[in-house]
């Protein structure tokens, strides 16, 4: 540590270059990660955030909520299965909303997804502003706060295209989107009135819902399907992956992130190696006067660690600074656990990339200190 | 107390079919407090001698004792410890660490051995003062003259309080006045601190400061009597 810090302070110039590269890499990694979370939130935020262990669908629906239809009464059978502690029905319907009083033709319309739930069930997010859903006020809804940017406020009455029903915004909640649309949580009964207004559109299913989320410590998916003949069950992850566009978006971002990390490992490795090579004579002297391999390697590694740590911290700072200037419409959500995970990965990468140098150091012959030219 | 003892040391280098005998049956004993010079033409085996005496290189035959410890069969790690505790090296120029101040150059030796105590700092300062470097204590190598840098290297060699001091052409890059000054200071420290010291040199003007002079030629070491 002693040598490492003294050198960092004395030869700032040569380390600023490498530091800058690590800053830029980590900046890009954090921005990509924020974008990744933002996009996956947009696609499946509501499902991702639901504290569910499994989801039950109609058989043959491919784990997709929009394709599945079943009766809410299956909930009771599910609750009797091993390990199940709670259930929450969910129904979804993509629509467009406008402020009540504007006309269907000329009024400004906003796409949204109507999510029917039981008030108080575990899928209902807590409101960050205003009220949660209640059983009494059926027309009162809890909506995603991104709708604020479209000019909506608490107390606004909403008209839905193709429906005569009116809804009132009772509260806002954060990061609740599904199928790339802001969520509007509504009482399930009210949902059915809107969605299945046309006679027969519910296929004759009593108390129709699209899916049932299941909570429980060790829920067995096979056991779950025994509750009813015509259902299938999947993990929450499977349900999230089945959301249209989710897997494709996620895979793209993840691939970019890992490529970036691998490339940076090589770049940093080369830099550290060149730096070590330049100091062969110096390390030879240290060995000649009794410095052990361990002493020199520790000092090089701790130098890489300190340099990377400072750079990654600057990268984090820059990222948070950047978020202030990102356009509102850009799906960007930086999660603290993600920032921590990627910081650790970045630190590990620079430590691993300095291993080339370690091998090189171990091989330096202390005789080089005598400056013998063969 | 014996500082360095070489018993019938031979060093052969094998290069393809050629074999070079760099040291040929060399025996030598240097007691604590003795300052010995080794001279000889280039390629005669001086550096090889110093490397073997300094635990940097293993002899092909014979035995080497440092401070009465037989180092002939030690492994690389043990040799490194011997260098740290028993040997002070004064190498040719540019062997200081560029980003350390004079004081830190000395303290790093202690760091290698664990930690730096208050006494270590006092000792380091005392050594620097002995060598006339009071004003250079907090200066970096590039802020010092060649002679000052070599004096720092001498101070560093004494820092671990070793049994022996080995110097490889310490005056190679210095003008006559500086060279005299540096070797005189080195001789003083060797006497004052009772070290067994060997200086390899090309420079015959420096021999006045030494107790004994050896000449090496084609790996054969002979004491020089008519010089002094
Ligand atoms: N690593 C080595 N491999 C082969 N031959 C060497 C090696 N080091 C030194 N020699 C040879 O050993 C002899 C003595 O070298 P050296 O001790 O460096 O002499 P000096 O320091 O007096 O110039 C020379 O002939 C040199 O070529
Ligand atoms: Mg030589």
From TrEMBL, chain A:
GO cellular component: plasma membrane
The organism's place on the tree of life at top rank: Bacteria
Membrane topology value: Multi-pass membrane protein
Keyword set, alphabetical order: Cell membrane, Membrane, Transmembrane, Transmembrane helix, Transport
Transmembrane segment boundaries: 15-39, 255-275, 295-320, 340-362
Pfam families: FtsX
Similarity comment text for this entry: Belongs to the ABC-4 integral membrane protein family. HrtB subfamily.
Subunit and partners: The complex is composed of two ATP-binding proteins (HrtA), two transmembrane proteins (HrtB) and a solute-binding protein.
Functional summary from the UniProt entry: Part of the ABC transporter complex hrt involved in hemin import. Responsible for the translocation of the substrate across the membrane.
PANTHER family named among the record's database cross-references: ABC TRANSPORTER, MEMBRANE PROTEIN, HEMIN TRANSPORT SYSTEM PERMEASE PROTEIN HRTB-RELATED
Name the UniProt record assigns to this protein: Putative hemin transport system permease protein HrtB
TrEMBL record, chain B:
Keyword ATP-binding: yes
Protein name: Putative ABC transport system ATP-binding protein
GO molecular function: ATP binding; ATP hydrolysis activity; transmembrane transporter activity
Domain ABC transporter span(s) in chain numbering: 4-228
Top-level taxon: Bacteria
Record-level GO cellular component terms: membrane protein complex
Family from the record: Belongs to the ABC transporter superfamily.
Species the sequence originates in: Pisciglobus halotolerans
GO biological process: amino acid transport
Keywords assigned by UniProt, alphabetized: Amino-acid transport, ATP-binding, Nucleotide-binding, Transport
């Amino acid at each position: 540590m002693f040598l490492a810090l003294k050198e960092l302070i004395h030869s700032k110039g040569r380390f600023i270059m490498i530091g800058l590269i690590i800053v830029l890499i980590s900046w890009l990694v954090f921005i990509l990660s924020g974008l990744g979370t933002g996009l996956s939130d947009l696609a499946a935020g509501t499902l991702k955030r639901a504290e569910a262990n499994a989801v039950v669908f109609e058989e043959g629906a491919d784990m997709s909520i929009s394709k599945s239809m079943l009766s809410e009464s299956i909930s009771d059978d599910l609750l009797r299965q091993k390990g199940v502690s709670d259930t929450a029905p969910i129904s979804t319907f993509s629509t467009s909303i406008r402020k009540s009083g504007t006309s269907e033709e000329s009024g400004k319309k906003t796409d949204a997804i109507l999510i029917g739930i039981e008030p108080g069930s575990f899928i209902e997010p807590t409101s960050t502003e205003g009220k949660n859903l209640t059983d009494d006020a059926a027309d009162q809804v809890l909506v995603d706060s991104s709708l604020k940017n479209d000019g909506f406020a608490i107390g606004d009455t909403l008209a839905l295209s193709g429906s005569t029903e009116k809804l009132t915004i009772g509260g806002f909640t954060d990061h609740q989107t599904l199928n790339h649309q802001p969520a509007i949580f509504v009482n399930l009964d009210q949902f059915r009135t809107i969605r299945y207004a046309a006679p027969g559109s519910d296929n004759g299913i009593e108390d129709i819902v699209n899916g049932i989320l299941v909570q429980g410590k060790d829920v067995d998916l096979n056991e779950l399907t025994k509750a009813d003949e015509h259902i299938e069950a999947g993990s929450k992850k499977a349900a999230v992956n089945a959301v249209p566009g989710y897997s494709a978006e996620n895979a793209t971002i993840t691939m970019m992130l890992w490529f970036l990390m691998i490339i940076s490992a090589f770049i940093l490795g080369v830099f550290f190696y060149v730096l070590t090579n330049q100091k062969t004579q110096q390390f030879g002297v240290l060995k000649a006067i009794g410095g052990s391999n361990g002493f020199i390697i520790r000092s090089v590694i701790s130098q890489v660690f300190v340099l990377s740590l400072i750079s990654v911290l600057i990268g984090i700072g820059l990222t948070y600074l950047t978020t202030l200037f990102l356009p509102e419409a850009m799906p960007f959500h930086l999660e603290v656990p993600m920032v921590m995970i990627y910081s650790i990965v970045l630190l590990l990468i620079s430590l691993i990339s300095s291993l080339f140098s370690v091998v090189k150091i171990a091989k330096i012959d202390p005789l080089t200190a005598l400056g013998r030219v063969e | 107390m014996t500082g360095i003892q070489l018993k019938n040391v031979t060093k052969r280098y094998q290069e393809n079919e050629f074999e070079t005998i760099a040291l040929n049956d060399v025996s030598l004993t240097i007691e604590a407090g003795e300052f010995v010079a080794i001279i000889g033409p280039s390629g005669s085996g001086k550096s090889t001698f110093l490397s073997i005496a300094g635990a940097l290189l293993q002899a092909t035959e014979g035995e080497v004792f440092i401070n009465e410890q037989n180092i002939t069969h030690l492994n690389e790690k043990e040799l490194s410890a011997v260098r740290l505790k028993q040997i002070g090296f004064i190498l040719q120029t540019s062997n200081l660490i560029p980003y350390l101040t004079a004081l830190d150059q000395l303290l790093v030796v202690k760091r290698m051995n664990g930690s730096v105590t208050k006494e270590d700092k006092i000792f380091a300062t005392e050594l620097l003062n002995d060598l006339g470097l009071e004003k250079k204590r907090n200066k970096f190598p590039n802020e010092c003259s060649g002679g000052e840098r070599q004096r720092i290297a001498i101070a560093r060699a004494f820092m671990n309080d070793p049994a022996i001091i080995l110097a490889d052409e310490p005056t190679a890059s210095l003008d006559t006045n500086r060279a005299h000054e540096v070797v005189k200071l080195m001789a003083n420290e060797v006497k004052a601190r009772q070290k067994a010291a060997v200086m390899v040199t090309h420079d015959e003007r420096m021999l006045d400061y030494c107790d004994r002079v050896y000449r090496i030629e084609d790996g054969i070491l002979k004491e020089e009597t008519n010089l002094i």
